[in-house]
Amino acid sequence: MISSLLVEFRKGDPAELARREAEYGADAVDGAFELIDWWRGLHAKPLTSVSANLRHYVKPHGHPLVTQRLKRFPTVVDKLLREPHMKLTQMADIGGCRALLPTQGAVYEVAKNLRRNWDVTRTRDYAAEPKTSGYRAVHLIVKRKGRLIEVQLRTPIQDAWANQVEEDSRRVGQNFKGGLGQQEVHDYYAVVSELLSLREQEQDPDEDLRQRLLYTYQAAQPFLTNDSGGQ
Question: pTM of the predicted model, to two decimals?
Answer without folding.
Answer: 0.81
